[in-house]
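Design review, sub-item: ligand-bound model
Attendees: FS, YL, KQ
YL presented the inputs for the coenzyme A complex:
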Amino acid sequence: MSPPDADPRGGYEVRRGDHVVSDDPARLDPDAVHRLLLGTFWGEGMDADLLRRAMRGSHSFGLYRGEALVGYARVITDYARNAHLADVVVSDGERGKGLGKWLVECVLDHPALRDVRTWQLATTDAHELYRRFGFTETPPGQVMRRSLDHSPWMGVRASVEPPSADPASSASTSTGPPAEEMGGESACQMHRFYDLEES
Ligand SMILES: CC(C)(COP(=O)(O)OP(=O)(O)OC[C@H]1O[C@@H](n2cnc3c(N)ncnc32)[C@H](O)[C@@H]1OP(=O)(O)O)[C@@H](O)C(=O)NCCC(=O)NCCS
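KQ shared the predicted structure:
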């Protein structure tokens, strides 16, 4: 499938009972997304303007019950070879009803996204949610990251900082805090290949 000529964002809507997944940018309130993400472990203190910029460069999906935004996911992608799934969240009161699975399913099934060859995401504890969609852990040593953020939940310190001068500190710029600081879970990168040729 060729990359789409027109902006593929918008016009996609899937209904299930009282809930709707929509990629209509006009319907999505960035402040409501911000509120949702502030409640996640990675979004604590997230800057609203930075999120707006991120959303402008992403393909966003809102999960709605009536007019209320109760879930969100976004995809950073070239619509052909690579896509990164990020900021997947379902609001507290709506969790455990299958909505997170449905939201991810709707995202992966979007006509402009379903043929993307390789998907990646990062997770600390939701591996089983994504495994059912074909995501697997990336082999150690194959994924690198450069970040201006301190992202302790990912176990990765900003790689643009100089290494610690303290030789006693085992948390170098590449390893970050120990797993206990991340809720005892190991952060990990997962990917999903359309076929093995692309790997
Ligand atoms: C993760 C999240 C999006 C899942 O949405 P949900 O609507 O609660 O989940 P669902 O009801 O669709 O079920 C998710 C399935 O994945 C499993 N799962 C695995 N890890 C999970 C996790 N960390 N959180 C929730 N479910 C998880 C569940 O057990 C369930 O499996 P089952 O169908 O076999 O019972 C939601 O709980 C949430 O927003 N959590 C906080 C933010 C977060 O951690 N996002 C993931 C970032 S990688």
